[in-house]
């Protein structure tokens, strides 16, 4: 009997390919859709993305994964946020937490009450003292958030640090057990319809041909389908994000077993530190216009917690995105669609968002005959542009808000022109302490507040409705909130103890 299902073909594995396959396997009915993934073990993946955002838990929950099992098999740890060291000035540090700062009172956002109390000399603690996630991270403590929304222990969320290669393998096993067909091989030829230009099939070096109705490009920076076949151009953002190189190296454990990622500013970029159960992931993102590879490697290796476990691996990249991510019957996901440096751990999130948007806009089986409605591609492209541009603005904020004077790289960033969309956000915050609060995409109010206040960008005014509250009451509520956070965190187990009892991986031989 002829298979009449809508045929989806994914080219490329890795994190992008297998997250896509897993999402499709979970959400699309097998009676209507077939999904085939083509990958070659001979082609390597970038595979350095190990830090995530809380949205990944929603993705895993959507798949129905057992959290403890997933964490054991990927040697994962918990992540409450990202610590930024030396970004404002050397010696300064702050945490971008996964959670709220304070709570709104009387319809007025928390930062306005704090700013008013601060202006009156009544704010008893720095801004970060009103974040449960920050306090727990500083204490190297962790426990699962309370599900009762009235509890102060429900005011934070968490993400993971995991081995991205092991995560892809985990999803491969999960997806193939649920009907995804995996074919080993490399694409040798691509056939397209002479009239519509749509891809009709790919042929592998083995000679095997794989026909399809929708093709998903997960081939990384090569973008074998979208760029290679449809010549979709690249929108380069190097003028705003000048780092174009990364050196990555794992090292043995040492120092604190932190429930957070660390990003430390360096002379021509920044260094990441990501603690897994079995090792620490490290890397130096830098600009080749300001630093040589040799100097970058020397700096990276001099700032490891333990012995290096491999030679540093060099990655070259250009920040930006494809002009389109869906054209004809080809959709690019992951690095084939765009790349933004991992300063805020957004790489896996952007894959996840694209997978969910694709599922929501997936053509129906009858479109195999009628062709894909272009409105689906238009909406997917609109959402993708929104995602990338909002992340871009947030990343650029970290760079331009520095006060590291006398260093060529940082001086350039502080004075460079910025996107109009970011300039508008900064002007609004400086005037009235208003921060973006997106319902779709990244990042929401508390994320922006953490970086703005953390790097010394303080508003000139605040919401005047805050002045209607009794100042003694405001000061008392601030003290009470910070006190409750302190008491709660003091009772939490350490991150190491929680990992040991909840999801400890088997020792690596």
Strand fraction equals 15-25%
The span between the termini is: 49 Å
Which CATH class of the domain at 6-50 and 163-234 and 320-389 is shown?
Alpha Beta
Shape summary: globular
Which homologous superfamily in CATH is the superfamily of the domain at 6-50 and 163-234 and 320-389? FAD/NAD(P)-binding domain
Mean pLDDT across residues: 94
Kindly report the CATH topology of the domain at 6-50 and 163-234 and 320-389. Answer: FAD/NAD(P)-binding domain
- What CATH architecture of the domain at 6-50 and 163-234 and 320-389 would you give? 3-Layer(bba) Sandwich
Q: Structural class, from helix and strand content? A: alpha+beta
> How many DSSP H or I helices?
16
Number of extended strands: 21
Strand order of the largest sheet: 5-4-14-15-16-13-17
Major sheet size, sense and barrel closure? 7 strands, mixed
Q: Which bin fits the share of residues in helices?
A: 25-40%
Report the radius of gyration as a whole number of Å. Answer: 24 Å
Q: Any low-confidence stretches, pLDDT <50, length ≥5?
A: none
Report a brief summary of the structure.
The chain has 509 residues and is of the alpha+beta class. The chain has helices spanning 14-27, 55-63, 67-74, 110-119, 132-138, 164-176, 226-230, 293-302, 347-360, 367-370, 374-400, 408-415, 420-432, 445-454, 471-490, 495-502; strands at residues 6-11, 33-39, 77-79, 81-85, 93-97, 159-161, 181-184, 187-192, 199-204, 209-211, 214-217, 234-236, 245-251, 261-266, 269-275, 280-286, 313-316, 320-322, 326-327, 330-332, 338-339.
């Amino acid at each position: 009997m002829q298979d009449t299902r809508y045929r989806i073909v994914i080219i490329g594995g890795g994190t992008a390919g297998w997250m896509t396959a897993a999402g499709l396997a979970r959400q699309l009915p097998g009676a209507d859709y077939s999904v085939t993934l083509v990958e070659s073990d001979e082609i390597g993946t970038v595979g350095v993305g190990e830090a995530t955002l809380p949205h990944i838990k929603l993705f895993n929950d959507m798949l129905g994964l057992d959290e403890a099992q997933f964490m054991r098999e990927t040697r994962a740890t918990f992540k409450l946020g990202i610590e930024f060291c030396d970004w404002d000035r050397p010696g300064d540090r702050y945490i971008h937490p996964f959670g709220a700062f304070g709570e709104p009172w009387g319809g007025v956002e928390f930062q306005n009450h704090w700013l008013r109390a601060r202006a009156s000399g009544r704010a008893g603690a720095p801004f970060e003292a009103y974040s449960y996630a920050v306090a727990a991270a500083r204490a190297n403590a962790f426990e699962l958030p309370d599900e009762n929304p009235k509890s102060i222990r429900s005011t934070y969320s968490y993400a993971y640090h995991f081995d991205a290669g092991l995560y892809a393998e985990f999803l491969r096993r999960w997806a193939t057990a649920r009907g995804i067909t995996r074919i080993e091989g490399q694409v040798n030829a691509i056939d397209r319809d002479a009239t519509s230009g749509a891809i009709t099939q790919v042929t592998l070096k083995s000679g095997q041909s794989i026909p399809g109705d929708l093709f998903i490009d997960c081939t990384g920076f090569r973008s074998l389908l979208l760029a290679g076949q449809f010549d979709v151009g690249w929108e380069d953002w190097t003028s705003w994000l000048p780092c174009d190189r990364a050196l990555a190296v794992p090292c043995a454990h040492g120092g604190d077993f932190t429930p957070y990622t660390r990003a430390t500013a360096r002379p021509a970029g920044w260094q990441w530190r990501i603690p897994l159960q079995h090792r620490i992931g490290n890397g130096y993102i830098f600009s080749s216009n300001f630093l040589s590879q040799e100097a970058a490697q020397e700096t990276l290796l001099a700032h490891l917690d333990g012995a290096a476990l491999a030679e540093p691996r060099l990655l070259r990249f250009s920040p930006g995105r494809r002009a389109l991510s869906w054209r004809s019957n080809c959709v690019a996901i992951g690095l084939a669609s765009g790349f933004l440096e991992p300063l805020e751990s957004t790489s896996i999130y952007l894959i996840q968002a694209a997978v969910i948007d694709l599922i929501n806009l997936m053509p129906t089986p009858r479109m195999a005959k009628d062709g894909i409605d272009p409105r689906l591609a238009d909406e997917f492209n609109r959402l993708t542009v929104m995602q990338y541009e909002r992340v871009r603005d947030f990343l650029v904020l970290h760079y331009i808000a520095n006060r590291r004077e006398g260093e060529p790289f940082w001086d350039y960033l502080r004075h460079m022109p910025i996107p109009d969309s970011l300039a508008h956000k900064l002007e609004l915050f400086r005037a009235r302490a208003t921060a973006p609060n997106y319902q779709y995409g990244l990042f929401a109010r508390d994320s922006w507040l953490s970086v703005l206040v953390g790097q010394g960008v303080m508003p000139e005014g605040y919401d005047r409705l805050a002045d209607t509250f009794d100042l003694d009451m405001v000061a008392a509520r601030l003290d009470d909130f910070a006190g409750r956070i302190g008491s709660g965190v003091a009772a939490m187990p350490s991150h190491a103890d929680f990992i040991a009892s909840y999801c400890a991986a088997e020792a690596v031989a």
